[in-house]
Amino acid sequence: MIGRLNHVAIAVPDLEAATTTYRDTLGATVSEQKVEPKHGVTVVFVELPNTKIELLHPLDENSPIAAFLSKNPSGGMHHICYEVDDIIKARDQMKSEGARVLGDGEPKIGAHGKPVLFLHPRDFCGTLVELEQA
C-alpha cells in the first residue's frame, strides 16, 4: 500500500544553523523557510535526488516540535513520510489492521499542500509515520 519515501523529518533547535549545515557543509539544495501555523512549525526542505529531508522548527512553546525538542534538546528524527495513492483508503486499512491514527482521524493539509495523516509510533516500531496522498 505505501508508495515511495516522501521525506524524513528532523526536528532542529536552530533552523538557521541546520539549513547552513545542509546547504554549505553537505552541499544540498534547500528551500526557503515556510511557516505552517496549523502544524505549529517552520519547515525547510532539503532536496535529494531520491527524497527530501524536512527540517522542523517549532513556531512557539505550544508546538508539538517544542515538546519533542524539550526531550531531545539537540534535535533528531521526528517522523518518516510515505506516499499513498488514496489517503482515505489507506487510513481505513490502517485502522482495520489496528493502527492508531492520531488526531481526529481526518486528513489535514500538509506542507506540500496535500492531505496527510499521522500514525501512532507505538504501532510502527517506535517511529511516527506520516502518510501523504501522492
What would you say the CATH architecture is? Roll
Succession of helices and strands: EHEEEEHEHEEE
CATH topology: 2,3-Dihydroxybiphenyl 1,2-Dioxygenase, domain 1
What fraction, in percent, of the residue positions are helical?
A: 10-25%
CATH class: Alpha Beta
Mean pLDDT: 96
Query: Low-confidence spans: pLDDT under 50, at least 5 residues?
Result: none
Give me the count of strands: 9
Which word captures the global form? globular
Q: Radius of gyration in whole Å, from Cα?
A: 15 Å
For the record, the count of structural domains works out to: 1
Overview of the molecule:
This protein has 134 residues and is of the alpha+beta class. It has one domain (5-133): 2,3-Dihydroxybiphenyl 1,2-Dioxygenase, domain 1 (Roll), CATH 3.10.180.10. It has 3 helices and 9 strands. Strands 1, 2, 3, 4, 5, 6, 7, 8 and 9 form a 9-stranded mixed β-sheet that branches. Strand 3 and strand 4 (41-47) form a beta hairpin. It is globular, with a radius of gyration of 15 Å.
Key features of this structure:
9-stranded mixed sheet; 9 strands; 2,3-Dihydroxybiphenyl 1,2-Dioxygenase, domain 1; single chain; alpha+beta; 134 residues
Describe the SSE topology.
Layout: E1 5-11, H1 15-25, E2 29-30, E3 34-36, E4 41-47, E5 52-58, H2 64-71, E6 76-84, H3 87-96, E7 108-109, E8 115-119, E9 128-133
Parallel strand pairs: 1-5, 6-9
Antiparallel strand pairs: 1-6, 2-4, 3-4, 4-5, 7-8, 8-9
